[in-house]
Design goal:
The protein has about 130 residues and is α+β, with helices and mostly antiparallel strands. It has helices at about 1-20, 55-65, 80-85, 110-120; strands at about 40-45, 70-75, 90-95, 100-105. InterPro entries: Thioredoxin-like_sf.
Length: about 130
Amino acid sequence: MRVLCRFFIIVILLGLSACVSFSEAETSPPYSLNENEKITLFFSDENNLEKESPYYDALLTLQNNFDDQKVIIINSSEEKLVNSFDIQEFPTLLIIKGEEVKGSLSGFQNYEQIEAFLQEVILPSNERF
């Protein structure tokens, strides 16, 4: 049942990512450059969705706790974006603030490692969950 639930969550997230997915024909990045806003970019390999489930779980927790936190899922097939951020490994999380990368996490991690990374990079120390 848990595997089925995760599958549906992943399918829903992929559907949502299609709404904010960045087309290679576009010239602007898939996020705003507001210097006060932190944005999470998740570079995902659609061939390894099951192995990436801890990332999706942690990102869901993040969005459930912070409605204003923008998460954008970028598929590995979007070569222009993958190359522009010099992504070498999937999955990869980047936290962007303005034009600066504030944090990066790559490779297969467990939920606790991903959650700790997100808390450390996104939240001030007095707001960590």
